[in-house]
Sequence to fold (204 residues):
Amino acid sequence: MSTQASDRRRPYRNDRRAKAAAGTRATILDAALRLFVEHGYAKVTIGDIAREAGIAVPTVYASTGGKAAILATLMYRGVDDPVVERTLETVRTATDARMAIAATARGVRLDNERHLEIVQVMVTAACVDQRVQEELDEVVRRYRRSLGVLAGRLAELGALKPGLSAERAGDMLWFLLGLPSWRLFITGCHWSWDETERWLTHHG
Fold:
């Protein structure tokens, strides 16, 4: 076989291997999420995840790392959800404060709704694993920076009360729209997502 023919075929084989690796990784992550939700992070082992996924233990480590790495990857599904950037773009271009607040409430509602299970797992796991706590701290920092975009836009629109800085407004927005608020209303008080979004939009 000529080198030229070999080069033409190699990208196809590499593409198949990449797709197979991505499929294996997704299978492991989905299996881990089911087990973390059902049994709790602390009780689940890599061996459990491997059996649930139908994959060898070394493959789990090679594809996704240990438990903390798996949980962090799952959590960043929420942080990197496309709804986040779409929401931020709407906020940056909003010409009305209520529009910006409503867009943010809608965006963070959708993100939390899609990923609430893994957020709850990560919060409880952080109590028993320092590596998870560090990842959760980073998630919170990124979440708060996103809310800071709304605070900054409200300041630009002249919508903040006199003497209220954008930084302090960001703290208030975290209280209203941050991870703890959604968990409190949805899982603690058993509000619906629609009820919670409406209330937070009105009080934002």
